[in-house]
Design a protein that fits this description.
Blueprint lengths: L8 H5 L2 H15 L3 E6 L4 H4 L4 E3 L1 H14 L8 E5 L2 H10 L5 E3 L8 H4 L3 H18 L6 E8 L4 H9 L3 E3 L4 H9 L9 E7 L2 H11 L3 H4 E4 L1 H5 L9 H6 L2 E4 L11 H13 L6 E5 L5 H6 L2 E2 L2 H10 L5 E5 L2 H13 L3 E4 L15 H11 L20 H17 L9
Parallel strand pairs: 1-2, 1-3, 3-4, 5-6, 5-7, 7-9, 8-9, 10-11, 10-12, 12-13
Helix pairs in contact: 2-18, 4-5, 8-19, 9-10
The structure holds iron/sulfur cluster.
Length: about 425
């Protein structure tokens, strides 16, 4: 986690309405050169200031398109990304050098992305190959293709790009997984194993949807166990030999809070109320497989949003994803006579995303407006996120491979 300096006291003492008014005024003053992006999991108080909302990749692509398409004289100079660190890195990689990407609070990281550190990944890569070579008399006649969820650092994306792999999102994980397990860009019939980083649950759910038997055809690599002296991260040589997919032992601290028991409670409630439309359970694939297996539908954030938008009046839903998004979906659904609730009553909020608040947003905008400069008008960029050019080049290879498999429809931006 990066260190975020404390804000001047006036930001911390100001009332929410006062902050909102000041942000709106700064927003107007800075005009077209500023774009504010709000991830779906942000609080309402941040979302109301966002020019665009969406998931991490969609927002980065919007920033890239705005930077490219804005006519001369109205260039985008600053993208304030109200999300977490890896998202701002992606936006920086996809926008031209002239655009500064700003994360309002540097301590807004992602616990899942932090579970895959570059050094651990290199160590795992070497250990896995060493063991497979050992099992085959010194030269394994196969290859490992790495796939990383976009919820990972730029360094991990670069590692994956360097080794012939690709990124994936929760929307296109099936497509990228199939590409990888069939050999990726190398169409020879060598044996292929996939190393799926950093989310074991998305990896396991995707492998199961592809038709793999997860008990025997996947194994788990836990870097914490590797650090304690278990060279295969807790898996046995036999498990590695049999596995078609090696899952990295990372997870989302929000989605892991949904449990199979929560699905059981919904089912029991349905059974106890036969005269009422049953509650449909819809969850994100970052939830554990046991939860996905007990749900009716599983899919990306965009899939959940679109499904709820199409839900007929009178229908009932239990949603397994981040609480701020669920609260907004429930409010919108209620206006159409749709009853929706969160799958569990636990505090399923992304605490790192939650660090982005109005005081930090106003502080970065005040700096951009020059409020802290000597002359009171020279812009100052604070909390810029910059990916090293070498890392960027390799990471873009992983992103480009994904986009060449599943190029999304152009997103309207103006
Ligand atoms: S919801 Fe989970 S995966 Fe998304 S940013 Fe928060 S910790 Fe990371």
């Amino acid at each position: 986690m990066l260190w975020q300096p404390s804000l001047p006291e006036k930001y911390l003492k100001a009332a929410p309405d006062e902050l909102a008014a000041a942000i709106t005024a700064r927003r107007a003053e800075l005009g077209d050169q500023l774009v504010i992006l709000g991830h779906h999991y942000q609080t309402d108080e941040i979302i109301r200031h966002a020019d665009y909302t969406g998931d991490s990749l969609k927002l980065s692509q919007i920033a890239a398109r705005l930077a490219k398409e804005r006519p001369e004289g109205r260039p985008v100079k600053w993208v304030v990304f109200c999300g977490v660190h890896f998202m701002a890195e992606s936006a920086d990689m996809l926008t031209p050098e002239s655009v500064e990407v700003i994360l309002p609070d540097l301590s807004a990281g992602c616990s899942m992305a932090d579970m895959a550190q570059y050094d651990d990944t290199v160590e795992a890569w070497n250990a896995l190959h060493a063991e497979l070579n050992r099992q085959h008399g010194g030269k394994w006649p196969g290859r490992i293709i790495p796939v990383t969820y976009v919820n990972s650092s730029a360094a991990i994306k670069a590692f994956v790009g360097q080794h012939g792999g690709a990124c994936c999102t929760s929307s296109n994980a099936d497509l990228v997984f199939e590409w990888a397990i069939k050999g990726g860009e190398d169409l020879s019939d060598q044996v292929t194993k996939v190393l799926f980083l950093p989310d074991q649950h998305l990896g396991r759910n995707t492998a199961a949807r592809y038709g793999l038997e997860v008990r025997s055809e996947t194994c788990l690599y836990d870097p914490r166990l590797a650090r304690k002296g278990e060279p295969l991260g807790g898996s046995t040589p036999e498990q590695l030999a049999a596995a078609k997919v090696i899952l990295w032992a990372g997870h989302c601290s929000v989605h892991k809070l949904f449990r199979p028991e929560h699905c059981n409670q919904i089912r029991a409630d349905n059974a106890a109320n036969p005269g009422r439309p049953p509650t449909t359970i819809i969850v994100h694939p970052e939830c554990a497989k046991e939860v996905v297996d007990k749900s009716d539908l599983a899919g990306s954030t965009e899939f959940i949003i679109k499904t709820l938008a199409k839900a007929p009046p009178g229908s009932r839903w239990a949603i397994g994803t981040e609480t701020h998004l669920v609260n907004r979906l429930c409010r919108e659904a209620a206006q159409r006579g749709v009853q929706a609730r969160i799958l569990s009553d636990c505090q399923c909020l992304c605490t790192t995303m939650y660090r982005i608040d109005q005081p930090h947003l106003l502080w970065v905008l005040d700096n951009l407006a020059g409020a802290f400069s000597k002359d009171g008008k020279s812009p100052k960029v604070v909390n810029a996120i910059k990916v090293h050019p070498q890392v960027r080049e390799l990471a873009l290879q992983a992103l480009d491979r994904m986009l060449s498999l599943a190029r999304p429809a152009p997103t309207p931006v103006d």
